[in-house]
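ligand=succinic acid
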Amino acid sequence: MKKLFTVFIMFALTAGFCVYAQQFSPQEVKDHSIGEKAKYLAGSHVEKGNSDCITCHDGKVKVDDSETSINTACMNCHGDLPSVAESVAPKGEINPHKSHLGTINCTACHTGHTPSFVYCNNCHSFAELNIPFAGKKPQYKTFDVKDYAKAKPLFSEKYDLVIIGSGGAGYAAAITAKEAGAKVVVLEKMPIPGGNSQLSAGGTNAAWTKFQKLANITDSPENMFYDTMKGGSFKSDPKLVNILAFKSNDTIEWLSSYGINLSQVNAGGGASQPRFHAPAGGIAVGSYLINNMKRIAEEKNIEVRLNSKAVHLLINKNREVTGVLVEGKHSGLYLIQAKSVVLAAGGFSANAALVESLRPAFKGMTTSNQPGALGEGMALAADAGATLIDMNEIQIHPSVAVGSQILITEAVRGVGAILVNHEGNRFVDELTTRDKASAAILAQKGKTAYLIIDDDTVERLAQIKGYFHLGLVKSGNTIAELAKAINVPADNLAKTIERYNGFVAKNKDDDFGRKIMRQNFGHGSYHAIEVAPGVHYTMGGAYINTDAQVLDKDLKPIKNLYGAGEVTGGVHGTNRLGGNSTSEMITFGRIAGESAVKNAGVK
Ligand code: SIN
């Protein structure tokens, strides 16, 4: 009897492996380190007997590229992200399960068969975040689209629209197209959606909006048009800027119609009026927009495929784009035939080699961008015959926290901060355009500067509390204490602040002509953040027309190909104004969606 029982237990214990034998070959089991040793997360789960292959794989060797089944399995056992966030880290500490990225896949960090990596540390350096089976930071490499020209897809699918990129432009196009009845799929090569839009900090430029009116700000699309043209050295395409400015109010209204309200209006660099629209309280605009757009996409059943890289655009003999070759993390190479393709794949600020080749002076500079911003969308467009314009117009943002990739939003200056150098002196109009502010910082000793704020400034912008949280701020109860903390001459800093307060009182900056000052200093403690320029935005890209059609070498539309957002060029000239990126991505994302739907003949 005892023997029989033992045999039964043995059977029960090995039943899972019998199932594997039916569905997973021994080599597959070995390749995946399952049942061998606890090398990675999967092996450890099996070894501990917590789960087996079937628990995560739903009985199949292959998982979908978005890893939905695995993530569902993780949540079935461990709870969803918010509940893990509550149990893992007490409030107030850095909590990777509760971040500006919103709800993301568990597998964005915890991988079963390879070393795991805390996704946040692609941009941050949170040494305290331990992850089981940790490995090195992944290297995000770009590829050559030409290598895929003759590749053979394993299978093929059909859609009305394929949208490449899940940043704000991609989501705006997808929502617009889906609402018009199109069959849409969004491809995202990274393990999380949102692209750089997710990181955008400050605001969304729009002119003559209900929120400006409520704040008694008088503005006009004409002003926004002129400021944008001027900010870009009049090198932008005026027809595109016209759309940006004159449709900007509609963009704010469109967002409002989904309950996305950018009701706080701040001042941005190079803008004659405050028109940097942010969520109430001054939280970061990008995560607010993307997390809401993710919600809308889910409500509308829009398919967003993660880990799915567009590697080649298919073009027929008439030079018409007919589809996209995709490399899925798990599904391999496959083809999506589509009536319209929308490129919304972002810029290339994280491609240090490309940045350096176009702007050698930016060699070795940090970037505020997510690691996927490598410029492949532009390569796809060029390979399809597109004209790329302004590729060497690369923006360095003046205020990236020194030693980090953390952008200190321009809105900090917009709500009152001043910039001082290591002598404690102001040296520039803090709200000039980014190119000028960056150049001025690079001309200072040490090529860095300090943003100076007080408690009042902190109260005006919730994001600043985040900088404290990230340990980027030095403080003092008095000017002298702060000066000591940042090692600048206290008497100079005191004189600078006193002089600036005088300018605020008479609303005239005699030294640098700053137009919007907003506050004097002297409210509570003083704080400083050391900043330096970092590669932030690439103004160039695939040239589009006002219908968001991508243009060929003769400036004729490439049939079936559309573009929106940072992958395109023409809107920003030599320098983009703060707040014009999120504005452009929604405005042109919607136009691209509308045009692509019309082209696809969706009724
Ligand atoms: C910022 O907030 O300074 C960045 C936002 C933008 O690039 O427009």
